[in-house]
Amino acid sequence: MLNLTELEQRALDTPINLADGHPRQELTDSQLKVVYRFPELFETAQVESFRELERSAQTEFLHALGQRTAPVADERVFSVYSSSVATMVVGNVLADLGHEVALVHPTFDNLHDILVRKVRVRPLSEADCATADLSGAVAAGATCVFVTTPNNPTGWFLDRDALARLAAACAHHGLLLCLDVSFRGFDTRAQFDNYEVLEAAGVSYVVIEDTGKLWPVSELKLGFLAVSADLRHAVDHVLSEVLLTVSPFVLRLVELLALDAVDGGFERLRGLVAENRRLVTTALHSLDGIDLVDPDARVSVCRIGVGSAAEAERVRAGLVDRAVHVLPCDQFHWARPGEGAGQLRLALARDRDLLADGLRRLAEVWRAVPTGST
Predict the structure, then answer these.
(1) Burial of 24 (0-12, 13-18, 19+ CB in 10 A)
(2) Rounded Cα gap, residues 195 and 199, in angstroms
(3) DSSP readout, 315-341?
(4) What pLDDT, in 10s, does the model give residues 157-187?
(5) Nearest residue to 349 (alpha-carbon basis) of 14, 28, 4
(6) Which pTM value belongs to this model?
(7) To which H or E segment does residue 276 belong?
(8) Pick from 13, 7, 18: which is nearest to 276 by CA?
């Protein structure tokens, strides 16, 4: 079976790519102004202090998302090429420290695939994360809890109280808490200061931050790894085995896009995603037997339920025949794929007309498929 990234790669050159969660909508006018400055940014980034560039980019990006106490000044935020590279670094650190991981289930399969190459991984439900019920994980030998919040593909998230409970529980049991917050920018409910909560709980933590889901700038992006003081040396050492430095040009770009985000950019992005989610909802109302699975989600992807696994595969194949690519949800449920049967995931960070065209083709496929057949 192909993994989700392999399926996304197949969609890259197709007319209607609704598979990957990367931003592929048109740039806004203010973002275009930043792009037009690329020659200037490239030139100035070569002569400015790297440390100052990095600190400014990290500060502006994290502050734009409400993370005002992130440990930038303490040099506990590290820059990497992407969130996947950050996850690889975390996996190596976990292996060096002898950890076993309880990973939120479901979530994007590459998190599991990266981690399981290094450490033992077992599933942990969103419900248990929300209630901080770690009894099963601890009994099974987990020493680390790894949570994606907001989650992909469900949109579920930990609010302030839930994160405080989970962090306190991890501290009580002596567990490391890892958070992947790559989709935080889409949901203001998740933009409370996570670091204030984590530091107050006294928990050992790693937080994976990501710029790559937010701005459609041809995959020019960064990931950031923020860590508690006790993990600084371990992460710094492992990271030195992976890279020397990130691009100063991309640091400057992230800083300017973060400033634009504060000046209405994030509001426009969330408005686009919300409008596209309404577009999906409206389209599904006219299709009997198909529905939106997570109506309260605000992230830039959505799940639709189409019935059985066989029917989901027929619909997906029919869409491919019509040059539309979406993802099956089986692989998100990496421990129990059957739980994702009958669901498909659509990306919402797209131009409205492209999404509308994809939904029209979905309707054609759906009406051509005998609902309930086996």
Answers:
(1) middle
(2) 6
(3) HHHHHHHTTEE-EESGGGSSS-GGGGT
(4) 999 999 999 999 999 999 999 999 999 999 9
(5) 28
(6) 0.96
(7) helix 266-285
(8) 18
